[in-house]
Specification:
By secondary structure, this protein is α+β, with helices and mostly antiparallel strands. Helices cover 40% and strands 19% of the residues. It has one domain. A four-stranded antiparallel beta sheet has the order 1-2-3-4, with helices on both faces. A hairpin with a 5-residue loop joins β2 and β3 (78-84).
Length: 108
Amino acid sequence: MLKRSLPILLLLATPAIADVLPPPGVREAQLGALIRAAGHQCDERPVPTMQRPSPEQSSALLEKHLRAEIVSCANGARYRVTTSYRPGNPMSYEKDGPPPAPVVQKLD
């Protein structure tokens, strides 16, 4: 009986695995929307760069459950977008309170 039910179980597990990763471009669209919501001009899908803050800044951000990303828009403008990041159980919001609002800073 296990041999018959194994293919069915695998088919049922496939949609759950597929739901974990967002499609390509979703994060870029989210970052662009945050930049525009802050009153800046940026295209629909800006390019996040792999530049990270200094180790001191990074550890300070992680303690506050924040993540900073440097984003380049098509018009040449660059922004640091800081968003809330709480790994693990989303129920931590109940204990720690709501996440902080995103912060967008224009870089020179």
